[in-house]
Amino acid sequence: MLALLGATTLVLVAAVRWMLPAAAGETNLKSPQNVEVYIIDDTFILQWNRSEPSVKNVTFSADYQTLENDTWVKLPGCQSVASTKCNFSSVKLNVYEEIKLRIRAEKDSHTSPWHYVDSFTLFGKAQIGPPKVHLEAEDKAIIINISPPGTKDHGMWALDSSSFTYSLDIWKNSSSGERRTKTVYPRDKIYKLSPETTYCLKVKARLLPRKTGVYSPVYCIKTTVENKLPPPENIQVDAKNHIYVLKWDYTYENVTFQAQWLHAYLKKIPGDNSGKWKQIPNCENVQTTQCVFPKNTFRKGIYLIRVRASDGNTTSVWSNEEKFDTQLQITPFPPVITMKSTNDVSLRVYISAPEESENKPVNHHYPLIYEIIFWENTSNAERKIQENRTDFTFPKLKPLTVYCVKARALIQEGKWNKSSVFSDIVCEKTKPGNTSKTWLIAGVCAALFSIPVVIYVMKLLFRCISYVFFPSSKPPSTIDEYFSEQPLRNLLLFTSEEHTERCFIIENRNTITAVEETNQTDGEHKKYNSQTSQDSGNYSNEDESSGSKFSEESLNQETE
Amino acid sequence: MTSRCILQTALLVYFCTTVLAMNYDLLQFQLSSSSVECQELLLQLNGTSKGCLKDRMNFKIPEEIKKSQQFQKEDIIWITLEMFGKTSDIFRRNLSSTGWNETIVEDLLATLHRQKEHLEGIMEEGNFTWDHRTLLHLKRYYLRIVQYLKAKKYSTCAWTIVQAEILRGFFFLDKLTGYLLN
């Protein structure tokens, strides 16, 4: 029973608790949806959608918080707002600071949960609004004067007002409106228009990096009647030694001209810079279509030049503003070249700046490029190279050859280029190659060493041949030692002379035939022959004495 | 045939990178010479340092600039553009109290402008990304300087402090532009 009561109470309590939120569900608010921040210039808008459009009398409130400060501050202009957007432009915030927003719905005393917006910077979300344009018509041009979007000194674009670039669309108001788009300065002129024609234009601003603004409203203006005197055209500036020559074209005669200059950077700054144009010296009331002024009139920088004509009664409009960069007007001086031949059959080239006649050296913003022409002295084939280094080498050339080089300095920037005259020609002969030199020395040494070797070898060879084919008949020297006596020698060796003897035969004991003996030795032999009558043969002997002894002995032996 | 194709491609890539490398080298040369000129001009502006110690201010130059952290090459150009642009903006303000030589200030503005034009031309042509955070930090830094000048009513001391701060900024910028060279 009690348990039953307890259970029922519990169920009832649960039911009530469940119902209560449902009852308050009519006033249980949902936070707003699709909350977006829209910023154009200095106008900050917070916009959202109702999550329950059927619920009436709902207001919305928003807070903001900076990253530095952790507290939520009420967003001015966005407290208890009945509509679905609010303007909080009056908030005093650094546009570059990161902030967070939150918004909720409110009705009576009930509030929805907060809807948070991710952190952002006002500058990051800002869009560029339309610039303000003021127009002035000429006969063939329109002068435009653009004011940057936003408030000038404070606000979103406080620091960027001179960083805007403007893009302009212009067309003729007539039916066949061909649109021309140009990038213009805040104070600029649009040329090449027809007189007495209505032109319409609109301008938008851009900020780097990628922020493009909204177009301004369309402005239309009619150009005036054609002027009697046209403006000068084709303005050019030439630099010569210490002067600049400003030239232009003009069709009419008997007019005087006036030239003015302005710092180019002033064009980028919005506002009236008409008072900043200055007269170029020697170029006021000139009657020729040129004027000359010294170089030191202009310090290094970029300038704009304009010219107008006057015939006493009427003055023409100003000509096109011609950009004049002093850096690009400088004709560089020709460089000075030094060339040296190096050991490995190459030529090393050094380029140096010439000594300036003025005391201050020219400091180029655009680095110099050198155009070098290189050729062999004997041939006409030229090699042209461009180099930005001042110290480089021509490798692998022919040894002991004369090469010549000349160079000129170039300044190049986009379509501008200015070159100096060519330097003096410098010629240099390459050294003989290291390798050929070595070979030469080696060859010479080899030759020197080889000659005695060859001679020696030849000698040996000759000896060998002569030994084999033409042996010597001279006895070896050892024989001479042993056999010093002549007869023995004669016995042992062949003599060169051949002794021929006439032999005689003793046939008759009695008759002794005296035979001639060709033996040249002695008459004793003859004698001998006559004495011995026996049938002893005569032994032919060279040596008579020895021979006779021998023969005597043999005779004695025989008889015994 | 394939190997020849590969060789040609390799040569093309090599020369492309060489050409691109050269472009950055040339740009670095131009930026550093502009920076040197600007610093020389700034130094020619005579500042009175006496009695200005009390006006010193910590403008809190962004940490990433101070530490010369290594940025992408495009980011370095954006940073340079921002710094040159804001410096130019500052020096066009009320300088009457300083007694500085007007021609020197004009030369400074002209140098900054010339380099800015050149960089803007480059960045407009290409499709470059940029580092939001660093640029925002830089904008905040320059806003602090401008607000300081306004608060001090463009006094001589305030300008002297700002001159020193801008010179300091160029010093850090030089280190950054060094990264354009590889």
UniProtKB/TrEMBL annotation, chain A:
Q: Specify the protein's topology with respect to the membrane.
A: Single-pass type I membrane protein
Q: Where is this cross-link: Glycyl lysine isopeptide (Lys-Gly) (interchain with G-Cter in ubiquitin)?
A: 526-527
Chain segments carrying region Disordered: 517-560
Major localisation: membrane
Question: Which InterPro entries does the record match to this protein?
Answer: FN3_dom, FN3_sf, Ig-like_fold, Interferon/interleukin_rcp_dom, Interferon_alpha/beta_rcpt-1, Type-II_Cytokine-TF_Rcpt
Q: Which residues form the signal peptide?
A: 1-25
> Does this UniProt record's set of keywords contain Transmembrane?
yes
* Keyword Magnesium attributed: no
Q: Name one GO biological process term.
A: response to virus
Q: Which SMART domains match?
A: FN3
The record's subcellular locations are: Cell membrane; Late endosome; Lysosome
| Alphabetical keyword list | Cell membrane, Disulfide bond, Endosome, Glycoprotein, Isopeptide bond, Lipoprotein, Lysosome, Membrane, Palmitate, Phosphoprotein, Receptor, Repeat, Signal, Transmembrane, Transmembrane helix, Ubl conjugation
Q: List the disulfide bonds.
A: 78-86, 200-220, 283-291, 404-427
Q: What does this protein do?
A: Together with IFNAR2, forms the heterodimeric receptor for type I interferons (including interferons alpha, beta, epsilon, omega and kappa). Type I interferon binding activates the JAK-STAT signaling cascade. Can also act independently of IFNAR2: form an active IFNB1 receptor by itself and activate a signaling cascade that does not involve activation of the JAK-STAT pathway.
> What is the protein name for this chain?
Interferon alpha/beta receptor 1
Automatic annotation (TrEMBL), chain B:
Q: Which domain of life is it from?
A: Eukaryota
Could you list this entry's UniProt keywords, alphabetically sorted: Antiviral defense, Cytokine, Disulfide bond, Glycoprotein, Secreted, Signal
* A GO cellular component annotation in the UniProt record: extracellular space
- Where is this chain's protein located in or outside the cell? Secreted
Pfam families in the record: Interferon
List the InterPro entries hit by this protein, alphabetically: 4_helix_cytokine-like_core, Interferon_alpha/beta/delta
An example GO BP is:
negative regulation of immune system process
What does UniProt give as the signal peptide span? 1-21
Q: Does Glycoprotein count among this protein's keywords?
A: yes
- GO terms assigned for molecular function: cytokine activity; cytokine receptor binding
SUPFAM superfamilies for the chain: 4-helical cytokines (SSF47266)
Does this UniProt record's set of keywords contain Protease? no
Listed PROSITE patterns: INTERFERON_A_B_D (PS00252)
How the protein assembles, per its UniProt entry? Monomer.
Q: Which family does it belong to?
A: Belongs to the alpha/beta interferon family.
PANTHER family, A to Z: INTERFERON BETA (PTHR11691:SF73), TYPE I INTERFERON (PTHR11691)
Name of the featured protein: Interferon beta
Starting at the broadest rank, the lineage of the source organism is: Eukaryota, Metazoa, Chordata, Craniata, Vertebrata
